[in-house]
Write a structure and sequence with these properties.
- It is a single chain.
- By secondary structure, the chain is an alpha+beta fold.
- It is built from 5 helices and 18 strands.
- Strand 16 and strand 17 form a beta hairpin.
- The termini are far apart.
- The N terminus is likely disordered.
């Protein structure tokens, strides 16, 4: 029955031809949706392995990003840890580890470094901002822009202090000072930056506010509830290294501090 074979083949061909015009754009759009362009100082960056987005974070090849930012990189295969150094700044990231070190301070990562298709990928924003860059995202063009603006020293120092206050190391320091079981960081106010004579170091004074929570026993067990708000004044030292980067010379645990204000939590509402 050759007519039956021919008829079935024609129906199959028609079915495939109907699918192709619809399938191809869907596939193309899916690929375009994950395409990310990266610009460093307005120059488009080329990659051997393409960046991708994971949970809102742009992930890029590790060694390529570090080298483009001026770092030298070493890799410890036994711990799967990368250490990148530029001047006195060292960044340390480990595969699948949720924290990264910026010199002596630990920071929480929204997305962990990982190995994909044989290459190590790291979060672009965290690394770039830790290196002192400004990072912006253009949703319309799906492009990331990394810039090192020629800002004055005070602007660089303010950015450094803001990053330090966001670190998990500073959180641990604040919890120890307030004797908290839980803490929420509130306002940050840098009140004074006193530069030394040669402009290569400074003393920074800043106020940091917290909502302090403590463990409270209840009939059903223990709950951690807000008990008070507090504002502390901190002082730390910063300096400019040979690479022109502003860095902390005081650890979070080594900063001097004094209590400026404290209120019961309900009074602060």
């Amino acid at each position: 029955m050759p007519w039956l074979t021919k008829k079935r083949f024609s129906h199959l061909a028609l079915f495939v031809s109907m699918l192709l015009p619809f399938d191809y754009p869907i596939l193309a759009n899916a690929q375009d949706a994950n395409t990310v362009q990266v610009y460093l100082q307005q120059d488009k960056v080329s990659w051997d392995q393409l960046p991708y987005i994971e949970n809102g974070s742009t992930m890029v090849p590790m060694r390529a990003l570090f080298e483009k930012l001026g770092f030298t990189v070493s890799w410890d295969q036994s711990t799967q840890t990368a250490s990148a150094k530029k001047g006195d700044l060292t960044l340390t990231l480990t595969i699948n580890k949720g924290t990264a070190a910026v010199n002596q301070n630990q920071h929480n990562l929204e997305v962990t470094p990982k190995i994909k298709d044989g290459s190590t990928f790291i979060p672009l924003r965290f690394v770039s901002e830790a290196a002192g860059a400004d990072v912006t995202w253009n949703e319309e063009t799906r492009a990331v822009n990394i810039d090192f603006p020629a800002t004055n020293p005070e602007q660089r120092i303010r950015k450094l202090i803001d990053s330090m206050v966001q670190s998990s190391s500073f959180t641990q320091t604040a919890m120890a000072i307030t004797e908290a079981d839980g803490i929420k960081k509130n306002e940050l106010n840098i009140t004074n930056i006193s530069m030394n004579a040669n402009g290569a170091a400074a003393t920074v004074t800043f106020d940091a506010g917290f909502t302090v929570s403590k463990a409270v026993k209840t009939g059903s067990g223990v709950t951690i509830s807000p008990t008070e708000t507090a504002v502390y004044q901190f002082k730390c030292q910063v300096y400019k290294d040979a690479a022109g980067q502003w860095l902390l010379s005081t650890s979070t645990s080594g900063m001097t501090y004094e209590l400026k204000d404290k209120k019961p939590f309900m009074e602060a509402q």
